[in-house]
Write a structure and sequence with these properties.
about 260 residues, alpha/beta, Rossmann fold, 8-stranded mixed β-sheet, 10 helices, about 45% helix
């Protein structure tokens, strides 16, 4: 399923690398570059993208899926139930909308629910120019959303050999999942200055051994730390903030 003509961007990386922070910066870039409208999907059960965007979540897609199993009214199809409630779950903001997947299913797969979710998401995405998925490390949600084509996959690593190695494994994992990816871009986040030579060598090795393209290094940011501590939206960061400028430079190179 290609989700029509929408340009699909996904984030991946092991936990704690800052995927959600970079997703928020990417939304800021798309909105400020007038590459709108954007539908952002928070597909990481442990993520808090809405908090980094200053938005409140009233209902998640997981909650809607669970309600569909037991609360679909007589005379209404499960597809109709999902479509109505998913539309109600869309959090509207300036230039972009947000949907939160929530917790994954518990014991006992309910594959029909995921299939219906994918169908409804496909129809919904036709209203947007970009579909942005902040994904969990294992990328299972790509299967749940039935995404088979991704234009750009940003793989995020922290400044460690393990993080870079995990990024390389994630790049290879997309082949096993049979996901067609236009470009896989490695971003190393929270990098100390000066750049450690050993880290740079790990990155070069990963790029050489995989189909990853190196996007760039992002520095540790006191400005982002302060925003997160104050529970303020990262969208309010000045475009002159060093980490924002570097992130925007990367996005500009890989997103049309």
């Amino acid at each position: 399923m290609s989700y029509g003509d929408v340009n699909i961007i996904a984030m991946a990386g092991k936990g704690g690398t800052g995927k959600t922070t970079i997703t928020a910066l990417l939304i800021k870039y798309l909105v400020e570059s007038n590459l709108t409208p954007v539908l952002a999907v928070d597909a990481d059960a442990n993520a808090n993208l809405n908090e980094l965007l200053g938005l409140q979540v009233d209902v998640t897609l997981g909650e809607i899926r669970d309600k569909m199993k037991t609360e679909t009214p007589q005379g209404m199809t499960k597809n109709e139930f999902m479509e109505i409630h998913i539309n109600q779950a869309v959090i509207e903001a300036k230039g972009f909308d947000l949907l939160v997947m929530g917790q994954p299913e518990g014991p006992g797969c309910y594959c029909m629910a995921n299939s219906i979710l994918a169908q409804v998401m496909e129809r919904l995405s036709k209203n947007y120019r970009y579909l942005l998925v902040d994904n969990e490390a294992g990328m299972e949600h790509l299967s749940r959303l039935n995404l088979r084509k991704i234009n750009t996959l940003f793989v995020i690593s922290d400044p460690s050999s393990r993080g870079v190695l995990t990024a390389a494994r994630i790049a290879d994992l997309t082949k096993a999942l049979q996901v067609q990816v236009g470009q896989k871009v490695l971003i190393v986040n929270r990098v100390p200055e000066p750049l450690p030579e050993s880290l740079d060598q790990h990155v070069k090795d990963a790029v050489e051994k995989t189909d990853l393209v190196f996007g760039g290094y992002l520095p540790a940011s006191q400005e982002i730390f302060q925003k997160e501590m104050a529970q303020e939206s990262l969208l309010e960061l000045s475009s002159e903030t060093p980490v924002v400028k570097k992130a925007f430079d990367i996005f500009k190179r890989f997103i049309s």
